[in-house]
Amino acid sequence: MPLIDRNTRGVYVIAATPFADDGALDLGSIDTLVDAYVEAGCDGMTILGVMGEAPKLSPEESRAAIARFMARAPKDFGTIVGVSAPGTDNLVRLAHSAMEAGAAGVMVAPIPGLALEAALVGYYAQVCEALGPDVPVVFQDYPQLTGVKVAASTILRLTRDYPQIVMLKHEDCPGLSKLQAVREGSGTADTPRLSILCGNGGIYLPQELQRGADGAMTGFAWPEMLVDVCRLHHAGKVDEAEDLFDAWLPLIRHEQQPGIGIALRKEALKRRGAIKSAKIRAPGPSLSAADLAELTRLIARTEARVAAIGGRTGGKLAA
Q1: Does the annotation place 217 within a ligand binding site?
Q2: Among the CATH numbers 3.40.50.300, 3.30.450.20, 3.20.20.70, 3.90.1150.10, which is that of 10-220?
């Protein structure tokens, strides 16, 4: 599989980790989920991220999931593996295992408690040295989760000093000015270009693209929206891209609800036939009858609006 680099762009959808109703890892649904992402037109996927419930998997399950995702993905479909962990040794072992299985790169978030820039830089120095020069790294900037605030100047320093850091997953919020500062500060005489893909459910995607992002890395249950918005934008059809995004916005916003967003996404993926069960491992949210009925109505209204402007709405759905 191709490795990510400083010019990588497009959509690397954040993959769910499918579980059976009894909580067991559902390897069969990994196959159908990968097929759905490929059919949607994604350029790749990111597995074992926040949406992938990575902390709830055992080391053996993580390796089994990586192997199954890799085995199903086409050769030109890049797979990034989230390897963030409290212990550097565990992080490095999982990263090397993923790369041996054919990963396109690994994603590493700062560990909580790195309040000073020197500590953050020291941490990534240690990680990059342990990983070695041939492992492409995605720096995940998600202070809402990690509690670690990182300045644009520090991100630029990291990618300048550690060539393995080739991509930024931008999730800071508010963060448009920061994204723009990173874009304008990389690809210069002294700082190499840094690929930027954006998360946060895609809720700010049009503005992020307009500020210089290369694409999306998030887990919206209709990834064809992410694909089509990015392709329209990159083709110079900026207003058309934003119009399509606006038609999907009710569902994008709905999925971004703190606490139940992952449950809504898994339920939607189940209804689309991508996975068999919407099971989330404990501790985790569950949806009430009112939540399910609300989602049914919102899907119908949004898909009708998207279809009316000629947009793709994707695969099957059941109430």
Answers
A1: yes
A2: 3.20.20.70
